Amino acid sequence: MALSEQLSAQEWLVEESALQMAKLNFYETIFTVGNGYQGTRGSLEEGTKGERSGTLLTGIFDHHDSTVIDLVNAPSWLPLTLWVEGIRLDPQTCKILEHRRVLDLRTGLLYRLTRFEDAQGRRTRYESLRYASFSNQHLCGIHAQVTAENYDGEIVVESAIDGERFNLDRMPSYAEVPDFHPEVKWEKWAKSKHLQSIANTVEDDAVCLEMETMDTGHHLGYAAALSVTGAAAQRRTKIEYERVSELLSFNASQGTTYTLDKLVSIYTSRDVAGDKLRSSCLDELRSGLQQGFTTRLQDHVDYWESLWADCDCVIAGEPAATHALRFNVYHLLITANKHDPKVNIGAKTLSGEGYKGHVFWDTEIFMLPFFIYTQPETARALLLYRYHTMAGAMENAKANGFKGAQYPWEAADTGVETTPKWTADRAHRIWTGEEEIHITADVAYGVVTYLTATEDWQFFFDYGAEILFNTARFWESRLEYNKTQDRYELNRVIGPDEFHEHVDNNVFTNWMARWNLQKAIELYHLLKQEHATILTGISAGLDLSDEEIARWGQMADKIFIPFDREKQLIEQFEGYFQRKEVPITHWDDNNMPAYPSGYDHFNTDETTLLKQPDVVMLMYVLPDEFDDEVKRVNYTYYEQRTLHKSSLSPSMHSIMGIEVGDTEKAVQYFLRSAEVDLVDNQGNTEWGIHAASTGGTWMSVVFGFGGFRVMNRQMTFKPWLPEGWEALRFKLKWRGNTLSVTIRPEDAVFYLSGEQPCSEEIVVSGQTLSIPSGQEVTIPL
Asked: Which of 104, 592, 477 is nearest to 300 (CA)?
């Protein structure tokens, strides 16, 4: 069977139709394959000058000589290089007659076809399928076919595991960044070394590499095996300082196709003890080899089918929008690991080194909702990461003179603050690690949102309550009492809009701190009434008392919220309305605002310009705390001042645009979010996928156009479809059951299913409906 026959229908495919070296790093990002345990960028197997190849293993961080701790660029399992009569086949040595690569979103397979012509006129056809197995997260591989089109001659295939890796750390400060040639741009950077070799060994059927991170002491083990079908091949191996290779040579006949199969197993000391690393890799590899490629592939494809059964979202009548949405969902699915409760999702997923692999509020606010409502087991694991890093959060609070848990703006493996102090070029100070403290309430928000949707009380008893109470305790100590005004304040902070630093009483931060305290109080009393014994144990462990809870309530009632009640206008922070008004007058090719003349990220503080939503963000996060008029007034005011210089921004404006009736811009913002990486509309996709935008895109469809929101602990729907959208179909997990939703211009259809007969009460456009399981319920819109 031709490898291309393994591909799904066109609607599932993302394609590269010609090789463009200037776009190599872009395609490396969007063609990432992964399984939650690892992500491997879509570099060419043979390697090229200018590539930024990378395999990122979740949870493998190291500091050593880097500015701040990095998610390590781990050994690469990709290298698979061909020589024909001694000539290396690669795009910079040979003429490329044909080139096509296809990412199959439905199956997680990366297909490639390249036809090389060398300097002697010999033509070689190379096809491959690449995958990171979802059915067995420790296995990955490349299945390839090689055809000598017009010659007889020797072909040598080298399969390697390459441990000579580094992370990018700093770049020189340029007054104006030059337009570097794509082959050398990464050479301008100062680099960090995180790995040292332990052992490179060869077996009769495999090659092995073991390395150790230099600061954190993680051990990484790989084993790889290469086979060729269709020829009698001679095998030899090669051991180098940080690289081990297996080479197969055979005599090829004109017109004959030969099959190559490279299988790789990966383990780390996070999985098994270091002295069992090599044996674990070899055992897993040999088990996979015995299973065979066809079976391994089918198991992997079947796993993907089960994922899409829960997560697919279809916009009937708009195939391009569906395609973009699926692309974003694919990148969410390959980066989260439900089997590992001590890891989370970095801001660039496992697809690139941007933000050094650090975890932000992006998870709780932008990505966690997708997992809560489609993959709740994964959502639970993501929240357990916050529990397991609470000791670091408490260390942050103590170091800053506060109590409780202060979650870091940027987190790695321990929960200790990891935000760098300076930009990569050392030209500008970064204050977010000290001042963007709303992250602590955002973590609490994730806990409560998960609990509401799943009613997983065991999670709350064992883990969530401790997070909620310790975050509330932080706010108690961080709030400052203004005796003159008889109010509590949060001064010198940064809100979601990072253009404005060192501000007082940012409304998002103040409101979320109040919400955090109120939810802690509410759930404390609920436990006291319904689970008194459990509360006794929690309170004893935290030294929590009724008196402390009462104090939280008194403080929450007096937290200052800047709000012009006459105009119904919320002031983003105290003094914001006195900042300089600078109108937005220019838009870019994507019809998004451009910086006004003379302004950039670092000098907008004096203006009312926003990087991304702040007040608008608050109204999205807490929808039932604002009436329709407040939403409309504030959306209208702040939307005109928002430059959307963060990929987080468009999706929130899409959702809120629909809520307030700005539907034309809502569609525009949705497309901007959906295409951030697919068409590289911010120009920086080469650094990795914009993780928050992937989640925001799904939310803009389900929460925005689908109108799904949780209000007063109840599922509500207020949908709106743009012209041309024939229907919108998605599924939601809710308290152990599944609600299938179809929105059409004229009606909405709901179908509830579960393991046991059940019913659910929902609200659709203000009308309360009871949905019994197993019955399709239709309501006119």
From this structure: 104
CB distance 734 to 728 below 8 Å = no
For the stretch 727-768, pLDDT in tens is 999 999 999 999 999 999 999 999 999 989 999 999 999 999
Q: What is the CB neighbour count within 10 angstroms for residue 542? A: 15
Percent of the chain with pLDDT over 90: 95
Provide the sign of the torsion angle of the four alpha carbons 35, 40, 41, 43, taken in this order. negative
Tokens describing residue 675: 């295409």
Determine the average pLDDT of the residues in 378-399. 98
Q: Is 395 a catalytic residue?
A: no
Helix (H) or strand (E) holding 259: strand 257-268
Q: What confidence category does residue 602 fall into, taking pLDDT thresholds of 50, 70 and 90?
A: confident
- Please report whether residue 665 resides in a domain: no
Tell me phi and psi for residue 644, to 5 degrees.
55, 45
Name the residue among 9, 654, 112 with its Cα closest to residue 319: 9
**Which CATH number goes with the domain that contains 288?**
2.70.98.40
**DSSP state letters, 362-408:** HIIIIIHHHHHHH-HHHHHHHHHHHHHTHHHHHHHHHHTT--S----
- Quick one: which of 80, 83, 58 has its CA closest to 71? 58
Q: Which among 435, 476, 498, 639 is annotated as catalytic? A: 498
Phi, psi of 8 (to 5 degrees): -80, 180
- Report the pLDDT value the prediction gives residue 274, as an integer from 0 to 100: 85
Proportion of the chain in helix, strand, coil states, percent, rounded to 5: 35, 30, 40
Element (H, E) at 60: strand 55-62
CATH number of the domain within which 560 lies: 1.50.10.10
Cβ-defined contacts of 392-397 (< 8 Å, 24+): 392/416, 393/440, 393/470, 394/470, 397/474, 397/477
pLDDT in tens, 332-373: 999 999 999 999 999 999 999 999 999 999 999 999 999 999
Does residue 400 lie within any of the structural domains?
no
Between residues 707 and 589, the one the model is more confident about: 707
Distance, in Å, from the CA atom of 499 to the CA atom of 646, rounded to the nearest integer, reads 11
Q: What pTM was estimated for this model as a whole? A: 0.97
Q: Is 356 left (phi over 0), alpha (psi -120 to 50) or beta?
A: left
For residue 46, what are the domain limits?
15-171+179-310
